[in-house]
Amino acid sequence: MTKICCIGAGYVGGPTMAMIALKAPDITVSVVDVNAARIAAWNSDDLPIYEPGLAEIVKECRGRNLLFTTEVKDAIREADFIFVSVNTPTKTYGIGAGRAADLRFVESVARSIAEVAESPKIIIEKSTMPVKTAETIKDILAASGRRLAHQVLSNPEFLAEGTAIADLLEPDRVLIGGEHTPGGDQAVAALVDIYARWVPRERIITTSLWSAELSKLVANAFLAQRISSINTISALCEATGADVDEVANAIGKDSRIGPKFLKSSVGFGGSCFQKDILNLVYLCEYYGLSEVAAYWNGVVHMNNWQKQRFAARIVRTLFNTVAGKKIAVLGFAFKKDTNDTRESPAICVVRDLLAERARVSVYDPQVPESQIRSEVRGPDGENELLTVVSNAYEAADGAHALVLVTEWDAFKHLDFERIYATMPKPAFIFDGRNILPLDELRQIGFRAEGIGKPAYSAPLLPHPSLKTVYSPAALTV
Ligand SMILES: NC(=O)c1ccc[n+]([C@@H]2O[C@H](COP(=O)([O-])OP(=O)(O)OC[C@H]3O[C@@H](n4cnc5c(N)ncnc54)[C@H](O)[C@@H]3O)[C@@H](O)[C@H]2O)c1
Questions:
Q1: Which CATH number fits domain 223-450: 3.40.50.720, 3.40.50.150, 3.40.190.10, 3.40.50.300?
Q2: 12 ligand 1 Cβ < 6 A
């Protein structure tokens, strides 16, 4: 029986291995992690990550050909294929701090394999790695002196949290990079055979190692760039009275642009987009491509600006002060259908509102209070102005404003008349995801604002043509 070991039981390792176990019942898949609590949760009814459809698959395969264990070394020793699915966060210290990927977890895995493996392994980079990480892994393996012919492949994961199971079932493509040597080609073919059990062959792309590693960073950079691009336009729409959804619809009909990823919002979040772009920026700087680095850095800069802009707009609209006012924040996950809060825009929005001394009440259907508190906690510790509640109505009760940060479907179906009745007037709503019907809310009596939508109350700025472009002095007269 073929044996797979996946090191790292996180948002990628758990779902991807569950899918392989489901589609390849003849393969034994062991998912290992140093985090014993996480492994215990994978072995319980309360899985450590929320992802629609995942629990059913885990239930079907667990104990059959899907195992979750902390016995890392045993699993490595027995495996034919070893997927490396550990975290590769942005470095927070030393050279490249704030941009480069922190590869200490990857290196530690490579050292464990070098120490334990007694037979040749196919080692697969599933984590997102900087270009040429495979070289480092090979170097560490070679230094073990055991003369085992390990192969290292790059097989980046393109799933999106919230739709991970659908993405894994029917991926747009599976990308496998390997060395163009007889051993490398053989390893690539063996991995292709695993995916080909459910993915059509024409969707399995094989490339060089470096192209595969780089493609993952570039895919995330392009996706994030679209969000930042439409978000720049949202600011212009707010200034001019245009509607960003109408603009997005109009440009998205152009088949060269396409309609996806054109939804303006409070900003992108998640563990990947920012980290991978910063990693790309670092890579460009390393190779002396400072203009290219600056271009991509702009995508992250714009995202940070959008988050701050949203919070600042709330303060401005609430008569320039939120001190002592209760504000309800709906949603804390970085997007709907996940409990992941890494780099969630909600963190910035809540922190900014707390800094303005607002009393912030947060509700999210999937994120526990402890997780929200630990994301918001600053250097001064717990903020006593923050409360976390168990439903949207409790959050809104007595609040001056309702701030929607995550696009959970349930928020579209709230009883807004009931909510309006419990809020001081004027009652404000700020929809950071443009999912609520602003006109209907305005009829109830709310002062409702969206992202990139004509403002409810603020007068429009004068048309730009009224300004004398070459004579700034004329404007101040
Ligand atoms: N989350 C996503 O949507 C997504 C999508 C595509 C790619 N990726 C990439 O996949 C990788 C993993 O992401 P994630 O979201 O699953 O991270 P995660 O933090 O959820 O999981 C990583 C796990 O690896 C474990 N780990 C770290 N070092 C270990 C070691 N030496 N031995 C055993 N276990 C170890 C950690 O305890 C953790 O549970 C990252 O490189 C990420 O960029 C993530």
A1: 3.40.50.720
A2: yes
